[in-house]
UniProtKB/TrEMBL annotation:
Gene3D superfamilies: FAD/NAD(P)-binding domain
InterPro entries per record: FAD/NAD-bd_sf, Lys/Orn_oxygenase
Keywords: FAD, Flavoprotein, Monooxygenase, NADP, Oxidoreductase
Catalytic activity: L-lysine + NADPH + O2 = N(6)-hydroxy-L-lysine + NADP(+) + H2O
Protein name: L-lysine N6-monooxygenase MbtG
Pathway where this protein functions: Siderophore biosynthesis
Family affiliation: Belongs to the lysine N(6)-hydroxylase/L-ornithine N(5)-oxygenase family.
Species of the source: Pseudonocardia xishanensis
E.C. number(s) listed in UniProt: 1.14.13.59
Keyword NADP tagged: yes
Length: 107
């Protein structure tokens, strides 16, 4: 905040920021039905995500379920599975917080 009140970005600055962010997610697949997420044998940090478009290999999967904390049947909260509401309480146990995917709802 400055002496003249809060400093908000201009519409153009905000647009530039959103474009910058979008470029960082150019390889994200959105709006595609996932039929399976399978571990890759011999590679504990890698998953195969099966979709109608084919199989994608990844190290991270983000599942956005809405406003209410929810995990699909079969997923149990643990070291690598959790909800963003618990992130601050768990941050000291995250090996590399720069690689922690975080999803939240927005209005």
């Amino acid at each position: 905040m400055s002496q003249f009140g809060p400093a908000y970005p201009t519409r153009i600055e905000f647009h530039d920021f959103l474009e910058w962010v979008a470029r960082r997610f150019a390889d994200v697949v959105d709006g595609t039905a996932v039929t399976a997420v399978n571990p890759v044998p011999g590679s504990p940090d890698v998953l195969d995500v099966v979709t109608a478009l084919g199989t994608l290999r990844t190290r991270n999967v983000v599942l956005a379920t809405g406003l209410t904390p929810n995990l699909p049947d079969g997923l149990v909260p643990g070291e690598r599975i959790g909800h963003s509401r618990d992130l601050l309480d768990r941050l000291d146990r995250v090996a590399d917080p720069r690689r922690a995917p975080l999803t939240r709802s927005s209005r």
